[in-house]
Design goal:
The protein is α/β, with parallel strands linked by helices. It contains 7 helices and 16 strands. Helices cover 27% and strands 28% of the residues. Strand 4 and strand 5 form a beta hairpin.
């Protein structure tokens, strides 16, 4: 086992689910003793870690939080398993290893990426180049989908279900009708969950709620969805946009791939995406990183930084 693998395994042992990143942050502060380190408070017991060396022209941005769920740490000939192996502790390990070899570099480790991006939104550094690390299988990504989050409240008439009633009296009926209509729009990466609805099977539901998340692939689709929501005005139905961020393209690198997921790239100008791992493995019960790929990360990251700084 080499140094980057040992560092990753050490971090895999530290739980860092969104909202509970303190132990991981404290570990990074200790690990970065050769850097100038700042703990940027975000909330009580939650902080970003910003580390610099020399006069950085480039900053490596990596989130330190993970999604919930335990993935037992396991090492095989070709893979290392564990929660965060690729999303994003393998990339944290690579960022640290590469930064140790460079004279002028900045590291930004954020909290809350898997939740509400609260850490990235707090970062005030906006000048320079930014390499945002996410699973891209060591390919440079120059664009990503956007994000539109909706909260839906459907209303009906609460009454005893033995009484005569019109189906429109049921908030459940009204909500599911709207959701079916939205599914038929075939928007990119559409997902809906019903968060509440009804109290008992002998009571007509007076209210029902849902959350919707859409990831538009380009600015035209983004504007189309926003316009649809704005004009959707129906009796007993309220649709609220709770978050929206346009799809973005890199000002730093134009010939990279498009990734389907949303990332902190949206919060940093002159940024691109790069890292180990296949996004289809992230957030799964068997999350793992390919050891061969992980061992290439330090070298590939340094090469990318040098290429970016010559642009």
């Amino acid at each position: 086992m080499n140094e980057i693998e040992r560092l990753l395994i050490e971090m895999l042992k530290i739980p860092s689910v969104s909202g509970q990143e303190k132990m991981m942050g404290d570990f990074l502060v200790r690990e970065l003793k050769d850097f100038e380190v700042e703990k940027q408070m975000v909330e009580k017991n939650r902080f970003n870690v910003i580390a610099t060396k020399g006069k950085p022209q480039t900053y490596i941005v990596v989130h330190m939080d993970t999604v919930p769920g335990v993935v037992p740490i396991k090492i095989t000939r070709n893979k290392i398993f564990g929660r965060g192996a690729i999303d994003n502790k393998g990339n944290i390990a690579g960022a640290i290893m590469a930064a140790r070899k460079l004279k002028n570099i900045g590291l930004i480790f954020t909290v809350g990426e898997e939740d509400n991006f609260i850490g990235a939104k707090k970062i005030k550094i906006k000048k320079g180049n930014f390499i945002v690390m996410e699973p891209t299988q060591l390919q440079v990504a120059s664009s990503q989908r956007g994000l539109i989050a909706l909260a839906i409240l459907a209303q009906g008439v609460q009454k005893h279900s033995s009484l005569d009633f019109k189906k429109e009296d049921s908030a459940i009926y009204n909500l599911t009708n709207l959701l079916q209509e939205l599914y038929k729009k075939n928007w990119t990466a559409f997902n809906a969950i019903i968060t509440s609805g009804g109290e008992a099977d002998n009571v007509i539901a007076g209210e029902a709620t849902a959350k919707v998340l859409v990831r538009p692939k380009n600015k035209a689709e983004f504007e189309k969805i926003i316009a649809f929501v704005a004009k959707t005005n129906r009796k007993g139905m309220k649709i609220k946009i709770t978050d929206k961020i346009k799809p973005c393209e890199s000002d730093l690198f134009k010939k990279g791939i498009l990734v389907p997921f949303f990332s902190e790239m949206a919060f940093f100008p002159n940024s691109l995406l790069f890292g180990v791992g296949n996004i289809s493995i992230a957030h799964t019960v068997n999350e793992y990183v390919e050891r061969k790929e992980l061992r290439q990360l330090e070298k590939k990251l340094i090469e990318l930084i040098r290429k970016v700084e010559k642009v």
